[in-house]
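Self-study notes.
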Amino acid sequence: MSLDGIEIGWIGTGNMGSPMSRCLVGAGASVTVFDPNADNMTASVEAGARAGSSGQDAASGAEFVFSMIPDDDVLRAVALGDAGVLAVMPAGSVYVDMSTVSPEVSVEVAAVADAAGIAFVRAPVSGSTILAAAGNLTILASGPDAAYQRCEPLFAAMAAIQFHVGADEQARYMKLVLNLLAASTVAALAEALSFGRKGGLDWNVMLDVIDESVVASPLVKYSLPPLKARDFSPAFSTDLMIKDMGLICEAAAGVGVPTEISDAVRRLYLATAAGGQGADNLTAAIRQLERQVGLGEPE
C-alpha cells in the first residue's frame, strides 16, 4: 500500500530507527527525521527524508510522529515538556513510540497525550537491524483501537507481522516478556555450552546437535552460525540487554512477580560487560562463562 501524502515525523535514527524510517520513505510517505547526532540522519536523508532541526521541527504538521529512542529519560525529553513533541502536535494526531521503555514512563506520556487529544500508540518491535532494513520486523502495539487501525498501513511498511495486544501498556509488557525469554535462552545456552565443553564435547559437534534438536528455537538457530565462527559482533549488544533486564526486574517487582531467574540472568550480563564485552553481542555471555571455568577458545 502506498503512503503517498502522509506526513510523518520521526525522532531517533540510530541502528534501528534509521532503516525503519527509510522503509516509510520507500513506501511513499513524506518523512521528516531528527536525531541529536546529525550523522545518524544521513542515510534517511539520502533515501528521501527531510532533516529536521529539532524534534519539534520534525513533529510540526505531521499526522503521525514516531520515536525510536534509547531509554526512559530520552523518551521523557522527546515527548514531554515545553520542548517535547506533544507540545506541538495537534489534537487528533497520533504519537507512536517504538522504543523499549518502562511501563511507568509510558503511563506518564499517555497521560499528557490524552490531555492534549493526541492518540498514543505504544509499538515496540522485535527483530534485528537486518530485519529492520528489510521491513520484516514484528511490531507489538497497544493503544486505542481506532489509532492502531490508522497506524496499520504504516506498520506494514516496517514489519512482516504486527499484533495489537491491548488498549494501554500491554505492548510494553509483551516486549519485556520476549526480551526476558531471549536473555534467559542465551544465558542457558552459555551455561550449557560451557558445561558440554568441560565434559569433553567438541564445540562444533555440540552446535550441530543443538541445531537439529527440540531446543533449536528460531533464536538459537539464528545464533548458531556466528557462534560456530566465534563471531560476537553486535546484533543486540550486551549493554542493551542489561538495560532491558533492568526494566524487566523493575516492572516485574512492580506487579508482584518474583525475579529470581531474571536477577540471575542479569548478573551474567553485568559480569560480561564488566569483563569488557558490553558492546559485543549478548552471546558474549558464553565467553564470560568460559573464562570463569577456565576454558579458552575451542580448538
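Second protein, same conventions, sequence then structure:
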Amino acid sequence: MRIDACGPGIDVGATSLPDGDFLAPLSDLGVIGASGEAAAAFLHGQLTNDVEHLLPGLARWAGYCTAKGRLLSTTRYWRDEQTIWMTSARPLSQALTKRLSMYVMRAKAKLADHSDDCAVFGLCGQTVAALAARTLKLPLPDADGASSGGGAHLVGLPGLAQADGMLRARWLLVVAADQAGQTWQILKTVAAPVASEVWRRTEVLCGIPRIVPGSYEQFVPQMINFESVDGVNFRKGCYPGQEIVARSQYLGKLKRRMFLATGQGATPDPGSDIMTASGGEPCGQVVLAASNGTGGFDILFESQLAAIDAGAVLAGSIPLALGSLPYPLKAID
C-alpha cells in the first residue's frame, strides 16, 4: 500500500485501463453511515441533494459544504432499510463524521465512520458485476441504483465512455472487511485486477469530481460542474452554504468551470495550480488527476472561463490538451 494525495492506494495488477472487465481495490474511499429515525431529515438539511425522499434502491451524488458554500466532500449516497450510506475520500472520513455529528444535537440520528469495517472495490463490466451480484445474492442495479443485503452494497455509477460511443458500466462494491479477501478471489476469476489509480482515472474520464485533502474547502459546487452531474437539488430546503450555491446559480455570476484534459509528465496533485501560458497569477486548480500508465495523465481541473478562452493552460509547467466532458454542462440561469 502507498499513500498519495488522494489517500492510501494499492498497486495491484495492471496500471492502465484493460480492454475487458476489471476490478480495483479502493482503499482511498471511506464509508460513513447515518442511522436513526431522523437520519434522513438530518442529512437532508446538511447535503446539497435530496436525502429525505431518496428511496432504497436509488443512488445519487451530493456535496457537503461550509457556510460559505465551499465543498468539504463529494459523496455517492444510497440507503437500505436501516442506514443512509455515504462515500468520501478516506483521509477525510473521520473528520467529516465528527463534523456532521456536531450538528446532530437532539435529532434521533447517529453518524459512524465505517471505513475500517468495510472494503470498497470498483467494478467495471457486466460480467464481473453480475458475478458479484450472484455471489452476494443482490439485485444488479443500474447506473442510478443501489442494492443492499447481508452487509454488502452494490452501487451504480456513471459509465465509462468508449471510443465507439458505448458505455462500460461501473459499480462500487462495499463488503464487510472480513469478506474482502474471499470476494476479491472470486471476482478476479472473471476480471483483471488493476491498481487503485486506474479506477481514479475512470472517475476523471467520467468527469466526476472527488474532494480530497488538497481540494478541501476550495470549490463551490458549480465550479466543478457538480450541478451538471445532478449533485445539487435547487428545489430543496436549506443546507450549509445553500444561499451562496443558489446565488451562483440564479444570478449567473459563475465565471469558473471544471474541464477535462490530458498532459505528458508527472501526475499533478489535487489543489495544485493551473496557470496560463502567459504566466501571472494562477487561473485555477487541479481537482483530480490520474496516470494513464504511459507516461502521461488525465486531469480534471477548475479554471476561470476567461483563461480557457484566452489560450493554453498549464498544470505547473506541463501544457494541457483539452478534451470533452462526457456530459453537457447545465446552463447557469
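Instructor comment on the second fold: The first strand starts at residue 2 and ends at 4.
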